[in-house]
Amino acid sequence: MMKTIIQPDLNNQRGAATLLVVLVLLVGITLVTLTTSKTVLLETQIAADNYRTAQAVAAANYAMDYGLIILITAGLIKLPPLESQVVMVLLILLRCLP
Q1: Could you tell me if 79 and 72 are in contact, meaning their C-beta atoms sit under 8 angstroms apart?
Q2: pTM
Q3: Which of 19, 60, 66, 67 has the most crowded CB, counting CB atoms within 10 A?
Q4: Residue 40 falls within a domain, yes or no?
């Protein structure tokens, strides 16, 4: 009996190599996508925090100005005549706001 040497078919090997390359690329693309989405989510949260901070600062400034005007109109704080005129203009503007 003679032994025959079986050579592997190269087409089958190419298919396996292609499958391996595709799987590696798929894993790489998945990792890049996950990292990108995490980064986008973090940047969105930072932008929302910055917006809320700006709103809080604006509200605090408005409250301080309004409180100061109330104290001035109540006569608890005395101002020179020119500054009193400015305060009156501000009072008129504030009453026009909703």
Answers
A1: yes
A2: 0.55
A3: 66
A4: yes
